Amino acid sequence: MPLTHGQTFALSTGDTVRLAEPRIPFCRSPRVLEYAEPTEPTPEQIAEILYVAQRVGRALAASTYGDPGCFCLLLNGPRVRRRPWFHVHIFLARSRREKWWVLFAMSQKRRLRWLARILRRVAPGLGLRGATGEPIERPDVSTRA
Fold first, then answer.
1. pLDDT for 89-135, tens place per residue?
2. pLDDT band at 60, cuts 50/70/90?
3. Measured distance CA(64)–CA(105) in Å, rounded
4. Which of 39, 50, 98, 134 would disulfide-bridge 93, Cβ 3.0–4.6 Å?
């Protein structure tokens, strides 16, 4: 099953979830499955969303690493979410060490975004990407006065 950014999945209740690709510094290919409604889903809907997230994680891991078991799901409760809507993070990780790194990067996301902005300015040759996802080009300093 080819998965794309913005792809939606229908739940049995008629509601939908959408696959997004957030920008999280130093994390490879993070994905988020977002509940489309502004209200909190019911426990039955949560179970179905987690089932969809598992299917998506397995498909991404199989297509990326050839092993459908190389993924991790992260679900935050309503009181500890940074964003108000229900969502499930999907990360690909080939080992426990990679999973540890992903969870560390998530816990330090604000600091790492700040660090990534500085590194893009100071060392553009590192290949860090800008807000649009495109590589940041090094400015031509030869034409400056």
1. 999 999 999 888 888 877 776 666 677 777 777 777 665 554 445 44
2. very high
3. 21
4. 98
What are the boundaries of each domain within the chain? Answer: 8-107, 110-145
Please name the residues in contact with 16: beta carbons below 8 A apart, sequence gap of 6 or more: 8, 9, 10, 36
**Superfamily of chain region 8-107:** HIT-like (3.30.428.10)
Q: How far apart are CA 89 and CA 110, in angstroms?
A: 16
Secondary structure percentages of the chain, helix, strand, coil, to 5: 40, 20, 45
Whether the Cβ atoms of residue 12 and residue 98 lie closer than 8 Å to each other:
no
How far apart (Å, rounded) are the C-alpha atoms in residues 29 and 42?
Answer: 29
Angle (CA) 110-115-116 rounded to 5° is: 95
> What's the confidence (pLDDT) of residue 25?
66
